[in-house]
Amino acid sequence: MAPAIEMRRVSKWYPRRTYSLAPWKQRDKIQVLDRLDLEIQPGAIFVLVGPNGVGKTTLLKILATLVLPDDGEVWVQGYSRTRHASRIRRILSFAIGEEWSFYGRLTARQNLEFFSRLHNLSSKEMKQKIQEATHLFALDGFLDRTYETLSTGTRHRLGIARSFLSGASILLADEPTRSLDPLSKRELQALLKRLSREWGKTILFTTHDLREAEEMGDTIGILHQGRILGVGKAEELSALNGQGNLEEVFADICQGETGCADTS
Q1: Residue 26: pLDDT above 70?
Q2: Cα-to-chain-centroid distance, residue 178
Q3: Hey, what domains does the chain have and what are their CATH numbers?
Q4: Which candidate, 106, 97, 115, places its Cα nearest to that of 156?
């Protein structure tokens, strides 16, 4: 069986921001991903952890066909990102829960109906999918409230519910539990586990919370300076430097960098 996600020697550069008034001046480039290799098996929950600015979001955007890599190869369920981007967009969904990704004055139901239409669902399919999503993501009582009145936790659940509508078998989520209170965080974690265990979804999400990575990940990947430094379970990664836990591994990697990872 082909891996759900496979990346080989993927590199990405971004131009460095300058304020020069000379448009002809060559701008420096910042390398975000550096010959990165990654493989994720079908049905797994893969948690990607790493300091700020190491390329976690860029990696997700490359997989979601939102950003082009500058070098390397990417396959999703055996389909080449270069040759089969449209097919990949049908089997992979990028869950975004930020406020700008929904229509604030529409209700949760109207938002889900709108995005169902974008996925070319029939009226019958749309009704069935929204009903399933409502039950699965505990959205009863919120469907007829406008998006702008929903709590952060409900917005995050709605973001994942939207990705569920497409029937995609792979879900990407960029720090989906960010800014959530402890109860909402546990609820969302339980939902992600259920999507994997009961629905067979492959889930790749990023986090700064090392405890969350240990609790959630079938596999954890450490991303730093554009490369995957290690992949495995928490106890396997802890053996990378002979230390006793993942926090100490990160302490060695970060070496005093601010915002490197949340170990609370």
Answers
A1: no
A2: 12
A3: 5-13+28-254 (3.40.50.300)
A4: 97
